[in-house]
Amino acid sequence: MDPAASPSGISSSSSASSSSATRATSRQHIYGAEKHSDESGETGNIKNRKIKSSSNGYVASYWSRYWKHYIAGGTVLVALIVLIVLLILKPWNKYPMAPLHNDAVKALPDEQPIWPIPNSFSYGVDSVLIDPDFHITVQSTATGAPLAAGSYPILEKAIARCMDRLQLKRNTTISLWAPDLESNSHTVPSGPTLSELVILVENAQATLEYGMIESYSLDVTTKQKIVGANTFKEYDQGLDKRGPGVGEDQVEQERVQQDGSVVGHAVLKATTQWGVIHGLETFSQLVRATPESAESTGAIAAPSLTQKTDNPLDIPNTPWSIQDEPRYSHRGILLDTSRNYFPVKDIIRTLEAMSVVKMNVFHWHVLDQQSYPLVSKTFPELSAKGAERPDLVYTHEDVAAIIQYGEERGIRVLPEFDAPGHTASWGRAFPNITVCVDKQPHAQYAAEPPAGQLDPLEPFTYTVLDGLVKEWAAQFPDSQVHMGGDEVSLNCWRSSERLKDYIRHPSHRKDYEKALPPTVTPLSSSQASSPSKSDLLMRRTGSGSQSGEDRLLEVYLDRAVAMFLEQDKRPIVWEELALEHNVKLPDSAIVQVWKSASNAKRVIKQGRPVILSSAEFWYLDCGHGSWLIGSQGQSWCGYSSWQRVYSYRLTDQLNAEQQKMVYGGEVCMWSEQTSSSNLDSSLWPRAAAAAEVLWSGTQDDQGQNRPLLHAAKRLAVVRDRLVQMGIAAAPLFPSWCGKHPEACLA
Amino acid sequence: MVRALYSISAALAFASNVFLVSLLFLPNTTPVNAHLWPKPVYECHGHRTIQLAKDFRFLLPQDSHPRLVSGAARFRNRILKSNFFSPVPMDPALVALEDRSQVDDIKLESIKIEVDKNTSDDELGPETDESYRLLIATDEDAKAPFDIDDIQCHQMSNNPFPRGVRGIIRAKSLYGALHGMETFSQLVTKNPETGTKEIVRAPIIIHDRPLFSHRGLMLDTSRNYISMAAIYRTIDAMSMNKFNVFHWHIADSQSFPIALDDQPSSSTSFSQGGNSKDEIDDELPLSQLASKGAYASDMTYKKKDIANIVDYAMSRGIRVIPEVDMPGHAWSWSRAFPEITTCLDGYPSYSRFSAEPPSGQLNPVVPKTYKVVQGVYDQILPLYKDKYFHAGADEVNINCWNNTESIIEYMKTNDIARTDAGFDRILNEFVSKQHDMLRQQGRTPIVWEEPLLNHELKTLKQNKDTVIQVWTSAQNIKNTVKKGYKVIAGSADYWYLDCGFGDWLGNWTQGRSWCDPYKSWQKVYSFNPIMGLTEKEAKNVLGGEALLWSEQVDDTNLDVKLWPRAAAVAEVLWSGNSDDSATQLWNGPDQTLDSLRSIEALDRINEQRFRMVSQHISAEPLQPLWCVQHPGHCLWPIYDAKPEGQPY
């Protein structure tokens, strides 16, 4: 029943772009109304909404007044100008399609659809069998000696997980998408056996932090490299020279056992345990399970997918040589646990899925206006009164468990304490630190209900904040912290007489500020010597004079930023602080871009690094209709198909120098319409598409665009992989297309 | 894979249930809400809370139908075991009125079920009377006014319960009684404080009947396989929303999941195969349709599976109408019978011959085509009893036939011009033979709208009882009823629940689904199947269906795509979408947004969503829980009527 499926699927790019242009306009429009309500301070209210929404009416009246001029003088001219402008701007070329085919890009073999695709790899035509006694050992790169037991707890767990994954392959189903499923041509693999994977790691106790070294190299071969003594050192000297096969003094020879049989040989090298974790993931994806053929089991022709078997495992296409490192250091998922609460096990499951696709940041948007689910020991009232229900909270134990689970997978838990906007839930416990809580009509005072913001002139605000920041700093080990700053409604602040007085009368400001704590907390001597403290340099994000509203925002920011810096936390903020306000920010602050993808360049021009998660590509909650009732409207942002998620070019329009300022990106899962019941299917497998963009980039090392056809086949397997691990990833297309990708991906 | 999917859905259901149980903790002592979904046509309530006896039971008439007996046991079990109560707080105005003084004294021991023997159909059909009345009142009231049709609320609401309370469900058919029990189960709520089951706002009178006799949900199990467990779960969810038709779009181009038996030789019962020369009744290896055309051997439905689904659904007041789509959408037949299919072009030319890959249609000039179709019908039709069978016939691609040599040859031989009209004649030949097979076995065919509106088939003109399922636009509903046909309404603009998830085809990064955007529940709820029809025309609308095509759906996301949005369809079809629906819908007014009751419905559908989650159905959330807990605070700004500063 899809009459238009083909028309829409194959319609020309010009009609595509014109419709998308319309979409973009209307999105901007709704967006302006709902999300962007405080841009000019006034635009949130209904009156202004009407002005905005009647822009068509404006055009109409303009037209009715001047139509004769157009008709008489220049209809043709106008049309020409429009055409020329369109041809010059080429809006349809803004995000060029990823190519369907691109033979210049080296493909992985169908049976080993590694995701995300390694940076550089080569493979051959042999294969090795995984020995039933297969095991994994860890050695020090420097000494070649096994690491002392207990000295690499994180690696031990990673190894155990890898072995579990192999067992899963032995015992459960083949992939539904396996291209040879129909042919039943499975032959039991044969070849030399592989009984050991040797891990060589330099530092198994590296810190989990932004910029950690995550590269690895993996070789699986029946040949043995006799390497010169210097090779490992060479490898140590840095990423640039990393990789096997670099030394000229190498010779290759088959590893032959005493009885004359050839054996396999696998080595995983990495600088840190984080690299090893990724390498083990890749290793498990190299391993293929070969179920017994349908004929031999007497099944009817179509193979069964539920039979429990003891599948033989092998690694085809040896010798494999993989050198891999991430394109970006920050590869994250944002999960909002305030709009709807997610039990800890949902978060755990999400972390598990992230590790499969080598993501490394769990951006935990833990607090927002709807609820305050994070238990504070300093101020227990906050969650007692601010959570949806007293039991829908995250205790300190929960948080610790999540952090540990993440660390075991090389995933940083990056908490966000969104303020001063989005804080109605704080006011349930402390009404005096918030203003305009629950004020109606909500659209005038907040991007969405309930309204409510911190009061920057209330001294107790900073007492609470100071207590919380200290508690959070102890709770969350990561050296960065997200301090929010999005969608501050200046209109909310104006609704308070006191704040309005501060905004309107510069001469009164000193009196108000006197009551507040000092802006920069003095640093202890040890902290002052820390190099990061040079980051205390603050710069205004805008130029020219500062509005009273921005001044008020700065009153808050100065103090909040100082509190985080004092705890050695590098702040991340949403883009509004950099682009829509004129406020002081520390030079070290990282800016997360969420609106237009093109805003990245504007931020970078300020000299600030960015994390990218444009709603145009990477908001995975979008396209689900407006959740505000009384409207038949659409959500303010459109649904991003996996193809669109995959096509986000993070460094588009940036020069080489500017590209270095892109730290990475995040897909965002806001939870107005998401809960336990649909989390997995909303996130996966689309988040995996983003994971490959972040790990491998949209282009390979030769600058070739990665083709969608390769991605589609592999992503379908990723989806299967996740489902088999208990993550309810959604199907991308009919199962039929898995067997006939060329037919479906035209 | 399938097992993994099972375990996931089971785990999800379990998880959400655990979550919900933990969710059921409210700090205060206010009475708990019990909203109904779908909203009854007529309900009135008092202001008294009573208790449900711990050994509550349904009293059934003697010699009750086994379906009534098992239904009563099922509902009793659910009512007594459920820990559900609404996350939506009761309206403060009602809280103030609620009298809880008798909650410990007055216990509802039983509900007496009375089914009108004379009109009770054992078998559920399109004519079945599904109305019911539910009464929870004092002994006196239960006797006196219950039979009065236009009973007024005020006659009952102030009566205390001097000597106890009685409950009655009276229905014309056992299926009406099942609906009554569903309604009753929604009235019972657990009090989180005391742990007892309560009924608030008693006494209660409900007179209820559906606006439409065909309230369906269509599920496509061909694009992606849907497991039996998921289908059972879907039927459970349908019954919670008083749906009564499961339209099972069981086979399509991508896969043929019905595991049939081979047909032994010389048992062919049908011989109208076109201009047949010498037909040999060879063995028809019909089992190969699935063994070659299904995704995998365990991604099939055996005949017993289908019979079980039919029985399971009937026990819940739901008719099953299978659809084996033809002559278009038939690539999957070609794996077993390449000779009866044509234009099996895959990439890159499928778009010449079909709306989506893979292309492939039955060849109407090959006699064997009809033998196979007959063979399939011979095995499927006995599996269920409904009057209707869905014969498909959507999106037949004429260009396909125009590129098939045997068809061109046939047209030459029979002097049929290769024009649209000529190909309509070919299609008519196929459809009329196909429909004859169905009619011979006592079934009335349902077809999609194209054979009537696009091809104007002669056989449809001759058989005006053929039911037309409209799926494109509301305008076509009018066009169809004007021609005098009965219609099952649907609209891709409103009731296609699979829309809005991007283009699953291709490398078009801006690609949208063809029926973009996603249909929010408000949009779903706003569709009136008889809008713009005269009263006479409206009578030809049997009802409608929520539709879920499964290109991007399987077990992992079936529940979240269906629910709670399909529940919005259910209410529109049961009692309408505006407060005066009972009258307004029939008069077919042009409704404005304001006349819809979606604001009022929000609290109820939020509650229904949580109720479904408590029954292991992973319905997706419509709003932040904060909004659910704070009615009236999450409205689109123009509806923001809540005065400033007023506590909620």
UniProtKB/TrEMBL annotation, chain A:
Annotated membrane-spanning segments are 70-89
Q: Which UniProt keywords apply?
A: Glycoprotein, Glycosidase, Hydrolase, Membrane, Signal, Transmembrane, Transmembrane helix
Q: Which reaction equation describes what this protein catalyses?
A: Hydrolysis of terminal non-reducing N-acetyl-D-hexosamine residues in N-acetyl-beta-D-hexosaminides
Q: Which InterPro entries does UniProt cross-reference here?
A: Beta_hexosaminidase_sua/sub, GH, Glyco_hydro_20_cat, Hex-like_dom2, HEX_eukaryotic_N
- Specify the Glycoside hydrolase family 20 catalytic domain's residue ranges: 328-697
GO MF term (any one): beta-N-acetylhexosaminidase activity
Q: Where is this region: Disordered?
A: 1-48, 510-547
Please report the stretch or stretches of sequence annotated as the Beta-hexosaminidase eukaryotic type N-terminal domain. Answer: 114-226
Q: Name one GO biological process term.
A: glycosaminoglycan metabolic process
Q: What is its EC number?
A: 3.2.1.52
Spell out the GO cellular component terms annotated for this protein, sorted alphabetically and separated by semicolons: membrane
Write out the biased-composition intervals (Low complexity): 1-27, 524-534
Q: Which residues form the active site?
A: E487
Regarding protein family, the annotation reads: Belongs to the glycosyl hydrolase 20 family.
Q: What is this protein called?
A: beta-N-acetylhexosaminidase
Lineage, opening ranks: Eukaryota, Fungi, Fungi incertae sedis, Mucoromycota, Mortierellomycotina
TrEMBL record, chain B:
Write down the top EC class of this protein. Answer: hydrolase
TM segments? none
The record places the active site at E395
The molecular function GO annotations come to: beta-N-acetylhexosaminidase activity
Pfam families to which the protein is assigned, alphabetical: Glyco_hydro_20 (PF00728)
Query: What sequence ranges are listed for the domain Glycoside hydrolase family 20 catalytic?
Result: 212-576
Key word Nucleotidyltransferase present? no
Report the catalytic activity.
Hydrolysis of terminal non-reducing N-acetyl-D-hexosamine residues in N-acetyl-beta-D-hexosaminides
Q: Write the signal peptide boundaries.
A: 1-34
Instruction: Report residue spans for region: Disordered.
Output: 262-283
Q: Write out the biased-composition intervals (Low complexity).
A: 265-275
> Which family would the database say this protein is a member of?
Belongs to the glycosyl hydrolase 20 family.
Q: What is this protein's record name?
A: Beta-hexosaminidase
